């Protein structure tokens, strides 16, 4: 009898802990994301670039995994002019990442090219669709992503401050349609995989609270933010304050989806770099040196920890100069990569440990 009572008690506790009704909160996301965006990696590898870590040659995925990385973010374009960031390339890179135990975060742009606050161009193959057809296409395309790539995290759009899939999903002119399109993508994810976490991505943090006030009723899991000092301010205390506000106000997990910082103001090709002036830096605390880059990323990690944010992702970690020293159409980011000009891993990778 005693054995039976113990069994019933354990069963009761198990059922109680596992049951869920409509009033209960969704399960917490308890793994701290330490991510890098490696979307350029397949293109760079075609140039036979050799990456090293402490003198040992390896591929970038394994180098970052060895140094504590747990998540790879990958950009996905619908039908780009070449194969890079196209579906099959992203699918292959996702499989590589999963094969060594890394989680996959798909950044779906819903465009054939770069999508950001200033550019949200609809895929060419969808340009003649009416709104109902476009909504169905968003659902079908997102379902394909879920079924064939099976990501752990997915963004419905990239930096959607102004909306996406213009003109149909332009927030300023068609806010209702924007929400419908986002809902279609969300539904496709939920119908395919209830475990995948859905992100909505905003560039910046100062006005993020206002942006999400109109979207919080949507069924998504994570508020994703870009933070670059050049565009989003140099006040790291303000960043911390706004992360706390967002988490408390909307009861959502928050993640820094994109960030980066230079280890030098020099260059390794003839392509103009996005960051190249001291006035773009956070001085004197974070100079453009290897240690300054490390200190910046450690500070971002610290802010994420103290605000109970979900984690951070470094953009362009692999985006070294790869087309030759005199190329004018190469990397605009090699001084912000996590490899130096000899393609050796920089100290900033310590932030993933």
Furnish the topology, listing elements before pairings.
Layout: H1 2-18, E1 33-37, H2 41-45, E2 51-53, E3 56-58, H3 60-66, E4 71-76, H4 87-99, E5 103-108, H5 131-148, E6 153-156, H6 171-192, E7 197-203, H7 208-213, E8 222-226, H8 229-232, H9 236-250, E9 253-259, H10 290-306, E10 311-315
Parallel strand pairs: 1-4, 1-10, 4-5, 5-6, 6-7, 7-8, 8-9, 9-10
Antiparallel strand pairs: 2-3
Helix pairs in contact: 5-6, 9-10
Describe what you observe in this structure:
- The chain has ten helices and ten strands.
- Strands 1-4-5-6-7-8-9-10 form an eight-stranded parallel barrel, surrounded by four helices. It has a two-stranded antiparallel ribbon with strand order 2-3.
- The chain has one domain: Alpha-Beta Barrel (TIM Barrel), CATH 3.20.20.
- It is α/β, with parallel strands linked by helices and 353 residues long.
- 35% of the residues lie in helices and 14% in strands.
- The model is unreliable at 1-27 (pLDDT under 50).
Short précis:
This protein has 353 residues and is α/β, with parallel strands linked by helices. It is built from 10 helices and 10 strands. The strands form 2 sheets. Strands 1-4-5-6-7-8-9-10 form an 8-stranded parallel β-barrel, surrounded by 4 helices. The chain has a two-stranded antiparallel ribbon with strand order 2-3.
